Records
---
Amino acid sequence: MFTRLGTNAVRTASRQTRNYATLRDIETRLKSIKNIEKITNTMKIVASTRLSKAERAKNTARVYDAADREVYKHAETAAVESEQPKNLLIVVSSDKGLCGSIHSSIAKATRKRIAELNNNVDVVAIGDKVRTQLNRTNADNLVLAFNGVGKETPTFTDAALISDEIYQLSDKYSNVEIFYNKFVSGVSFEPTIKPLFDAEAIEQSPALSQYETDQDAKVPETLSEFSLANAIYTSLADGYASEVSARRNAMDNASKNAGDMITRYSILYNRTRQAVITNELVDIITGASSLD
Amino acid sequence: MFRSTAFKSLARQSQFISRRTYADAASADVLKLSLALPHATLFSSEQVTQVNVPGANGDFGILANHVPIIEQLRPGLISITETSGQTKEFFVSGGFATVQPGSTLSITAIEAFEPSAFSAEAVKTQLAEAQKNVNNSDEAIAATAAIQVEVLEALQSVAK
């Protein structure tokens, strides 16, 4: 009974001064930090197990992309300059957060590019996170959004479905660019722009004449459609690898910070406990001596 | 069809011979092949002797110093003769083959498997299934079935 009253007295005192937390407060705080640490630590482990698979997918996707782009390099393909350019930006990100600045940096890069193109841009957002971010500032530019990406390592089927939807609207765009987070190393990524070419641009490539193509088979058109799907696939794979590694780092930092907080709060908890015990002893002793 | 294919490959060959006389003999005489899939890399700039690909306009063989070409692939067998003389075969469902100036061949396909990976029975049942849907009143289903039939018929001659 007495002890109860004692702590209550301490608590009321702390409410007034605001710098002396009670034992119970510290205990709940400590417990919640410990739980958070457990969660972040698990997320870190999950991310690091996924990382190797994601990196492998990214590497093969890059080889695929290089094989796909070789022809544009040799044909010196460039976007067609038109009097009334219509731009389309495809922004590749994902649905899930808790991975550092990965979504905001790509949204920032997109906004910058939109400003550069005098706002004469349509945007396709792949992934919920980037859609909400762009919806805040550039809602008028957003024409199409996809979600449900980034849960697992991307497959070509995902990319084909997305590109099919985009292709339904992309025939009127003179300039198409893909934004994605390029995986640089385990600790860094870089928002990158990849240009895409439509059939017209491929036909007008300066060095295309050195290639033998079948005129009747609509090769440029099929090639541009195929490349759109390929580019989306490789961007998804690269973006996914950067996201997973960013998440691992973010969760690693969070766990470390939680560890620091746990040590600080444990010390504070023990100190406060001792102080409370001392106070109670003082109370008891003074009470006992007054009876003498 | 067969005649035109044969003719085409003959024509290609004569072109190849005429080009060969102009080529510098030493370094350019090898063909570098990149055969890449979205989820796997089968060949990455590896030297090979000859590659036969199923083009949309008929099968054709590619040797070193082939003229640059962009060709869409139809479902069929790619056969690769390696420098050691061994032949590797892959069935592809479609994609693109591009020969770059400088004897580099890049093939991008969505799927590629060795013929031994297919079961002839499964092909047969799926083909029967697809053929049923070819004349479906729903255009989307009919188009999907037509593509399935195209792939499976090509596969039927390959699967053992």
Note: Residues 13-27 of chain B have pLDDT under 50 and may be disordered.
---
Amino acid sequence: MTTTAQAFNTRKEQQEPRCSSPDVSEQSYLVQVVNRDSWFTARSDKSLLVGMELDASQTIAVGCRGGGCGMCKIRVLAGKYDSKRMSRAHISEQEQAEDYVLACRIYPRSDLVIESDHFTVKPEL
Amino acid sequence: MKKGVMRPGHIQLRVLDMEEALAHYRDLIGLIEMDRDDQGRVYLKGWTEVDKFSVVLREADEPGMDFVGFKVLNNQVLEQLQGELVEFGCQVENIPAGELNGCGRRVRFDSPTGHMFELYADKEQTGKWGISSTNPDAFPMDLKGMKATRFDHCLLYGGDLDGTLKLFQQVLGFDLAEQVMDENGTRVAQFLTISTKAHDIAFIKHPEDSKFHHASFYLETWEDVLRAADLISITDTSLDIGPTRHGLTHGKTIYFFDPSGNRSEVFCGGDYHYPDHEPVTWTTDQLGKAIFYHDRKLNERFLTALT
């Protein structure tokens, strides 16, 4: 069994993990995507977006997978998750309080209900 | 016409987590960590680069690019170009020597596509890393990861390509080496050079200004690009696309993302340009082939995933 700490840390095995996610064993959770009328199974030791890719689902747009580009912006309608730092250009403090997140930066801690496709390009005025 | 600008000298990138970023730029791409400063910024470079640093990482809430700096021949050129930038209508700011460790006075200016650029004449020269400048060996023994040789160029996205082209051609002396034209004769991509490289900087038209697409690092061979692809899989790094070839510039390439979502490229080969060459033109009906020569179709992410 791979622990979360090991999974986060495959690139620097000798170091302590820096992310704040608690050390929990790998589990699988059901993720319902209401706007796509679809669902997938996500692992607790991978980001929600990578979990979606591993389950061969295409219900969330895939961009950088690093919290920078905003393409995977979703809203979590129900369920628990942990999150890492996300670009403030795409998730304001108020949005974060309203459970808007980047799927590549959250880790499921229960079954989730989400709404995807919240990314928009902001043209210059 | 050359105006005394020599080369892309540095790029400052914003990252969400410095240690994760160092695992990417230092341990995976293989840049050398050269210094850190009291702001917490980390300075790196490719091992063949003579100046002290070419990549500066800064931890921040929003990933992306702070600025790209170009080194000019001397302080006389710096003075001259500062005046011409003001005349062109740029907002120009003086950054005092030492604000970046080991770098002289910088002239910072904005651009019609919203990106910030800098010129500077002096930077501490520490020499190529790990080898002597007298009877130099082929390479140092203890390079890491992809063993990137240098920071090569960057690609930026923004609206007013014509304005930024004018700035780079008329004030800074760059040539237009390659371009993509749409069916109405509008330029939607421009690859600019100050050397014989096919690009020292490039721009693609996009509705949002001041966006960063990628920073690119040079490898020697196609075998090195394939080995980079293996390392991307070994480290489970976020892949964009490749290994493949570009139609534009004909470089052989792979694209991937740093842990904050900034795109990186490592590449080898590519066309050359002299000042008497006409620009190479691709047309938007062949855009897939222009960008990804083998797949011949664009992935949405290449146009949309920006920081």
Note: The longest strand of chain B covers residues 5-15.
---
Amino acid sequence: MAIKYIGLSEINGPLVMLDKVSGISYDEIAKIKLADGTQRLARVVELSGDKAVLQVFEGTKGLSLTNTETQFRGRPMELALSTEMLGRVFSGSGRPIDGLGEIFPHKFADINGKPLNPVHRTYPRNYINTGISSIDALVTLIRGQKLPIFSGSGLSHNKLAVQIVRQARIAEENGQEFAVVFGAMGVQNDVAEYFRRSFEETGVLQRVVMFLNLSNDPIIERILTPRCALTAAEYLAFEHNMHILVILTDITSYAEALREFSSSKGEIPGRKGYPGYLYSDLASLYERAGIVEGKQGSVTQIPILTMPNDDITHPVPDLTGYITEGQIVLDRGLDQTGIYPPVSVLPSLSRLMKDGIGEGYTREDHSSVSNQLFASYAKVQDARALASVIGEEELSAGDKSYLKFGELFEKHFLTQSFDENRTIDETLDLGWSLLSTLPKSELDRIDEEHISRFYDEQKAKERFSL
Amino acid sequence: MNTIFSINGPVVKVRDTKDFQMLEMVYVGKRRLIGEVIGVTSECTTIQVYEGTSGLTVGEPVETTGSPMSATLAPGIISNIFDGIERPLRALGQKTGAFIEDGTEVDAVDTQKLYDVTMKIKVGDTLRAGQIYATCPETELIEHRCMLSPFIKEGVVTYVAENGKYKVNDVVAKLDCDGDEVSLTLCQKWPIRTPRPIAKRLSANKPLITGQRIIDTVVPVAKGGTAAIPGGFGTGKTMTQHQLAKWCDADIIVYIGCGERGNEMTQVLEEFSELIDPKTQRPLTDRTVLIANTSNMPVAAREASIYTGITLAEYYRDMGYHIAIMADSTSRWAEALREISGRLEEMPAEEGFPAYLPSRLSEFYERAGYVNTLGGSEGSVTIIGAVSPQGSDFSEPVTQNTKRFVRCFWALDKSLAYARHYPAINWTMSYSEYSDDLSQYYNENVAPDFMKLRQGISNILHEETNLMEIVKLMGSDVLPDDQKILIETARVVRVGFLQQNAYHKDDTYVPLNKQYLMMKAILSLFKKSKNALSKGVPMSSIIETGWFEKLIKVKYDIPNDKPSMFEDYEADMTADFEKLVSLAEKA
């Protein structure tokens, strides 16, 4: 027996209130039927006595206090799951929108997931070769990691994400499959189309599950989008042993949707008006990356976020950085000088790389090369700052060699074309050539043995025609 | 029967009842979720629920327990991993699989395991609060000492069990307390928000030796002291805490992963079981308790995790052990306070944090200390709390309030981290109020001139900071030679001494004696260089001796167990510089 509640008692933004209800559980899903026969989904967000507050996913436009019939489902929001999802396109709340009909579900799962017991995680160690020098050498991506791209409006984060998807060798030899789950939150139609076309051109479209919530779609649905995407990813990874790369874009739009929703509920705001629970909320998404002990598959996340006004201390990138295992930061200055990918090396970091590189994973000299490149490039910044004050001619020989190193590093190491796929050996050798342009005594992060094996001034001169 | 009236996130309200006590533990709903009463008025009782509330219905029952949120204190805690309300995650995993389900009840410790108990009392003895009545080996390293709970003042022993194997809940002794019979087991409970009583606070004048050079020499922390590690993301808070947990000379480590990453906790679990403690040759897990309430686990339990951790620490302190607590990160805990405060619709203070944030922080840090226990032994609890300032801005409320209540401030610096200078502790922003209290210890136990050398190193760094202002504007070429030598020496201090490689087998832990000898060598080089300069030796020849580079690599080149090599270095250095000086004098 399902009770239908006729009408509403209040409508406020995306929220509606119902009076005189009973037997409803917190977080439950309801179906709201309008007089014209269309249906909307809503979720219980607050219960108080016989009153219930519901958020309507598709927005409250056209609702009145009298023209609705609300029916509760008795269950939290669930997503229908099946391997048929591969190659399909869904709305942010998980309805198929590619005109190919409903999927035949193998099971239903609560989209909020459950926290993974730390005891049952496997610590991620296998690196993913992306073929991009700056990432492979300096911010190595590890399978099961969550590594966001911090970008700004107008930067080439989408292009970089596509290149990573295309070049990433994520699957092992033993026949494990690789798939991409793509969650778009509040992106423009063109961006979604760009991803779809790129996936098609690179031949991975049949291995992609897309969840699209475009910028003109309702904001409440936006809050569901990443949860649907991650539920699908967990299903494919942990029940079908696939290696899943989840791309979520744009987290900033997601956080803004959360803010809008929070303020319409009348909650007390934290920093910049974002709700006080933004950290916990973002964590409930990012923490769903990982590897479950005893399972073959993995979930790797690359969330993309545009920093408002390129400000890395804005709450969204700030809180993200505290949860994720590192970050890839893109820089407008580099982008303007025509460097692609414009990875700003110094603030970028991969926390898991230390355990996934070196002998047995990449190459034994990897960690010393990357440390030295970081340290040396940090000195380039000092030399440049000094040069801008006293002029380049006045610099000491040491500082001049750093200026040269910086220039070569940006031109040869960072810069890479969209279809250039470098192996890890190529990348590390390139790194050594760059370091060889500096005097040996400047290499204080590398032990003697590696210096004597790899340091080659002559080769560097030939390579960069100095 | 009391029933749920309203539900909003982790906050549940019950109306029209007078059955509840403040801070009492309750069971909420048919699934018996664990909750705590956080507000009582005549109309309405407010409860925060430590598990997910999804699926709860208005009208479900709320059960009282009559006792406050308490931790179970018994053998079996060490080397275990708990969530924020002391539910063991391994046992939880066996019950519900890889993902944590709500409403799962498990015992805090294994109640079936048999411990080899030795009784320390006999019939007729008078047992007072805090006195030990039984001991049993808990791990290879830690002997568990069962003490009379401070709730019971004293009693006369009327029954003592034979020494032998007992389970946690077996009765091993009975007391007559003014006519009431009290049965003692290996287990007791203590409310997590109440500090355990002590006999007397002692002054903190012994250092917590960590083997990390910048901490031990520049900004030391005392056993029983408090320290904060603030730093933006990626500056190495967690890494520093891991290093301290691995190497510091506390007997027991309580590591609280409060609202942090799941993978990090997995890493701690893996690493600590593989790492062997050099002093005892046992895995580090034998002396570690982990509390893991990761960022995606319920927020109310995150708030409780800090208190659970410190209660466990105080319990072991009362046995006479030295405990170090790593709380990573206290900002997540403060955010949990803010989140719950928001749900209660309390009036917010700064940045939405509740007005009682400073008092809660001080209550937490004040539970540290070096004490005489009720049982008559000495023990200590050292708190090292990581702080994650919003936007890496140290002026935000959590960092500022923490600063008021800790005596050691290890500020992590983004620009050092960007240059991969680890540990990225900024030597100008950091301070330790313990350095005076500890100077006697260092001078007596390491070397009489230890504090003098430390001052020498600080002076070099301080002068370098001043000179760098000029260098930034004019380049280093304009400086006179004696200042160039200072800058060069400061580089040796920064790269060779302050920077420390956690992944290098020798450098990851450096004994105090080697730290001392390294400082001595650097200052000796500085003195010799200045002397050579004054004798007319050109700057370039001093650099060409290679001693600056050599001292930078001393940390790798001289193994920790061969301090005598420093004498050879000193002799070689003296010879090289004498040669330089005599050459210059001839010319």
Note: The mean pLDDT of chain A is 90.
---
Amino acid sequence: MQILAELEFPPVSHIVNWPELVGGDTIGVNKVVLVYLFAVVLTALVFILGSKGELVPRGMQNVAESAVDFVQDGIIMQTMGKEGLSWTPFMLSLFFFIFFTNIFEIIPVIQMPASARIALPMFLALLTWLLYNGAGIRSQGLFGYLKSSLFPPGVPIPLYILVTPIEFVSNFIVRPFSLMVRLFANLLAGHILLVTFAVLTSALWVKAWYAVFFPLPLFAVIFFTLFEILVSFLQAYVFTLLAGVYIGGAMHPDH
Amino acid sequence: MSTLVLAQQAAEGITNTGLAALTYGLGAIGPGIGIGYLVGQSVQAMARQPEAAGMVRTTMFLGIAFVEALALIGFVVFFLGQG
């Protein structure tokens, strides 16, 4: 097939790199930074417009109230229990911020998920790491927290030689790493998928017999765009859910 | 032309990118089976006990997140291995 030989897929570094609009290499503003700022503004708007406190909610207050219900019933009560309700503002802003940075993947013209650059997932994972360790230390004390997370009860004493290093690696190293990679790789994969089919679609817009295949990648682009809406929501949900599980686990150790 | 040279030429035909892609394909098998089994069992649980569907769903997403991480690490390694 001649067309496959002529196709030039952009390398991965090209499809997530953007030139700086303002400033230099180290400190500059490019499209990704603009997406961060947009997401912060939108998250703040949800909080401001949602907190009017009218008895009959209208407009944004409706969205905000159902989001609070969703985060409280679907995430916090399931993972942290009643004591976790004071974490609602954090979990809510985490959920909305991740969702807004993800959803820019499919907004026309912008079409760049800010989470596909490792900086944002890494920062969020480190923040969650600090918070769940902080929550554990606050509720059990430093010594008690280390004891409950490194020496799980109900294990024969000689086995602690094996169990303690495993628990250390899984609690303090693998957790933030997997949080980071999950968000980052999901969004990068989605972005590459959309780019691939968009490149194929534009390559088939020619006067040649193989132009009959044109509808296939076009439908794929449409389908995967819809699919990415689901992925953006699901990744925000999963990140918040896991943050809740880790914070809840640090506050209430296994007995 | 000796067989040694032929083998060398054949080996040069396999690029790093091809190997990385093959390895990611292998790495996707396990999580694929895992997620399929997990969701299948969850659907069965929800069908048998619809009143517990909410709890099952949360746990299912948690499980999917953990299983999926393996495939995604493979996906990242694919890009690292291309170089």
Note: The mean pLDDT of chain B is 83.
